[in-house]
Write a structure and sequence with these properties.
The complex is a heterodimer of chains A (263) and B (285).
Chain A: H1 20-40, H2 51-64, H3 66-98, H4 100-115, H5 118-129, H6 134-157, H7 161-169, H8 174-212, H9 217-226, H10 230-259
Chain B: E1 7-16, E2 19-29, E3 34-38, H1 45-53, E4 60-65, E5 77-80, H2 92-96, H3 98-102, H4 107-120, H5 136-149, E6 154-158, H6 166-182, E7 186-191, H7 194-200, E8 203-207, E9 214-219, H8 232-250, H9 256-275, H10 280-283
Parallel strand pairs in B: 3-7, 3-8, 5-6, 6-7
Antiparallel strand pairs in B: 1-2, 1-4, 8-9
């Protein structure tokens, strides 16, 4: 007689350890590191420092408190410029989406502002504000504002009129239509406004700091380049990448999954 | 009619500019009667519903809903649209309860009513699911639930089962019919499907092509519970209706393609007008 045995998984005791997807991810990263190390052996350190050397420099700078010292100014400026810009951008986006006249007035200026390169703003900021805190914050603000605005505007414009009509035919009061139809359909777009602006804010912060600041990741990177400390350029870049991943994957994606769970 | 009808249209005309859509339409709907409107596509069936709902202004003639002009707050309206219009971010039970929430029924009561309809519609266990996770047929059932849960006096249905296959349609019709027999309401059911018409309608009104007049009216006495799609009598009526619709086709001056294009254009105009008096314009750019 054939009895069906319960499925026996010899990795059942450690399901987290045997995870083929994770395994492949790790192998991919290790392969990149290996190739990097291999190529770095062919060139002098000031051209391409290897991962071991970069890790070494990273630890040194971390222990010296250098990383902490340069990280916080950047975080502070980014958050400052970003929060003002997104609050304003989302507000303006909703207003423009709900009012055709306002949209007609503001559409062309916003498009022009978006077309101006970040570097132009950075130069102008130095000319206008000099080497002050205001300079990088201004650049971050000007770059993120239209991004937040356009994403929100798109969200307002794509609200399904048929759902609004459905709610109206059921004689739903206005506040209910806003709460149950407008807000939920705009929310994913607000999130993309927040995340995309954040990505731009970080990146432009580095540029703004290189030109108009005497502290922060951008400044540190510039200084490292001037002294041809290529390993430090790598370290500052890595610090930036970690920061970006933490904010984007760690914070934003989690909040988004919590709120937009119906998709 | 001895009892005052729920809905009365007399000599209703309607048009957009020079484009006359309705040219003298008259009919009545009783409080527990299903009136089916069939007609060539794009002829003005949806316009009729929008007029009764008060979404379009009555230009000529007289429309009364519950003895007053459309928009009468004493008459609760229920809707079924051909494009479901479920809120994707609300669970099945909240979608079914939406009409009740709009009427500010307390949460406990609306959830218990919604639950009753969910059970009746065989959706038990799916209360907390989101519509996107359900099959098309189940989404249709949620719509039926939403329409009935608010216990409307008048149910307006705009080709609600247009996009489902023939077998599923028969099933949904039966389900609809069962629920309707438990709590009968006045229904105006717009369709292009003659089988739907004879299975559901107490009265079937056949429209001409535009400008619309009532071409013919059929009364079906047989109670709904005794109607079968295979019944020869019903098939006979169905054939008569089809013959009338074919006449309307043959009478078209242009090719079919032209008629379809015109139909689409009219639908768009209707949509523009339908939303023109509300807040949706303020948000559509």
């Amino acid at each position: 007689m054939i009895r069906s045995l319960p499925a026996y998984n010899r990795f059942a005791f450690a399901p987290r350890l045997y995870n083929p997807t994770l395994l492949r991810n790790v192998v991919g990263v290790l392969a990149i590191l290996g190739i990097w190390q291999g190529i770095s052996l062919l060139y002098p350190s000031y051209l391409l420092p290897g991962p071991v050397e970069v890790a070494h420099t990273f630890l040194r700078l971390l222990l010296q408190g250098e990383i902490e010292q340069q990280l916080w100014p950047t975080v502070y400026r980014t958050v400052a410029g970003y929060s003002v810009a997104t609050v304003l951008g989302i507000g303006l986006g909703i207003a423009m989406g709900s009012n055709k006249y306002l949209l007609d007035f503001v559409r062309v200026p916003v498009t022009i502002v978006m077309a101006i390169p970040g570097l132009s703003w950075a130069f102008l900021a130095v000319i206008w504000f000099g080497l002050t805190e205001a300079s990088p914050i201004f650049v971050i603000f000007v770059i993120t504002l239209p991004i937040a605005l356009v994403n929100t505007l798109k969200g307002v414009q794509q609200v399904d009129r048929r759902l609004v009509e459905m709610a109206r035919t059921h004689r739903a009061p206005y506040w209910m239509i806003v709460r149950d139809v407008y807000l939920p359909s705009i929310l994913p777009y607000i999130f993309s406004a927040l995340t995309v602006s954040m990505a731009f804010a970080w990146k432009i912060a580095i540029v703004a700091e290189m030109l108009g600041s005497s502290s922060g990741l951008g400044y540190a990177m510039l200084k490292a380049r001037d002294y041809i400390k290529t390993d430090e350029v790598f370290v500052w870049t890595l610090v930036f990448v970690f920061l970006f991943l933490i904010v984007d994957n760690g914070i934003f994606r989690t909040i988004e999954r919590m709120i937009v769970k119906w998709q | 009619m001895a009892v005052e009808p729920l809905v009365g249209l007399s000599d209703v005309r309607f048009g957009y500019g020079n484009n006359q859509v309705l040219d003298s339409v008259s009919f009545e709907v009783g409080r527990e009667e299903i009136v089916v409107i069939v007609g060539p596509s794009g002829c003005g069936k949806s316009t009729t519903l929008n007029l009764v709902a008060g979404l379009l202004p009555c230009q000529n003639g007289k429309i009364e809903v519950g003895g007053r002009p459309p928009g009468n707050p004493d008459i609760v309206l229920g809707y079924m649209f051909q494009d479901l219009r479920l809120l994707p971010w609300k669970s099945v039970i909240d979608n079914v309860a939406f009409g009740l929430a709009a009427r500010r029924v307390s949460e406990n009561e609306r959830l218990s009513v919604a639950k009753r309809y969910i059970d009746l519609l065989g959706l038990t266990g799916f209360e907390k699911h989101y519509p996107n996770r359900l099959s098309g047929g189940m989404q249709q059932r949620v719509c039926i639930g939403r329409a009935f849960a608010m216990n409307p006096d008048l149910l307006l249905m705009d080709e609600p089962f247009k996009s489902v296959d023939a077998q599923l349609r028969l099933y949904l019709l039966e389900l609809f019919s069962n629920i309707w027999q438990r709590s009968p309401k006045g229904v105006i059911f717009v369709t292009h499907d003659t089988q739907e018409a004879v299975l559901l309608g107490d009265r079937i009104i056949v429209y001409t092509k535009r400008p619309v007049r009532v071409k013919a009216t059929f009364e079906i006495d047989r109670p709904q519970s005794m109607r079968k799609a295979t019944d020869p009598d019903l098939r006979d009526t169905e054939a008569q209706i089809l013959a009338l619709l074919y006449e309307e086709r043959a009478a078209l001056p242009n090719t079919l393609e032209d008629e379809d294009k015109e139909g689409v254009q009219i639908e768009q105009e209707i949509e523009c007008h339908a939303v023109g008096n509300g807040l949706s314009t303020s948000l559509s750019v």
